[in-house]
Amino acid sequence: MAIFIFVVGIILVLGVLRIDGMMKEHIKNDKRIIERLDMLINIQKDKKE
């Protein structure tokens, strides 16, 4: 019984680490998208002036 609880604990920890890694990757992608949009906004502002 103790081995089962130990294995389930390890599986839960690995699952949480995987989700954390995926979320960090999405945040990086979102930051890149925001930076590109900011550049495009600045280019449009410069064209209007």
Q: What does this molecule look like?
A:
There is one protein chain. The protein is mostly helical. The chain has one domain (1-48). The chain has one helix and no strands. It is rod-shaped and about 70 Å long.
Summarize the SSE layout with pairings.
Elements: H1 2-48
Beta content comes to under 5%
Q: What oligomeric assembly is this protein in?
A: single chain
Task: Bin the helical content.
Answer: over 70%
Give the tally of β-strands: 0
Q: How large, in whole angstroms, is the Cα Rg?
A: 21 Å
**Main sheet: strands, sense, barrel:** none
Give the averaged pLDDT, no decimals. 94
Instruction: Supply the number of helical segments.
Output: 1
Poorly predicted sequence stretches spanning 5 or more consecutive residues? none
Tell me the structural class.
Answer: mainly alpha
Give a short summary of the structure.
By secondary structure, this protein is mainly alpha-helical. Helices cover 96% and strands 0% of the residues.
What attributes does this structure have?
49 residues, mainly alpha, 96% helix
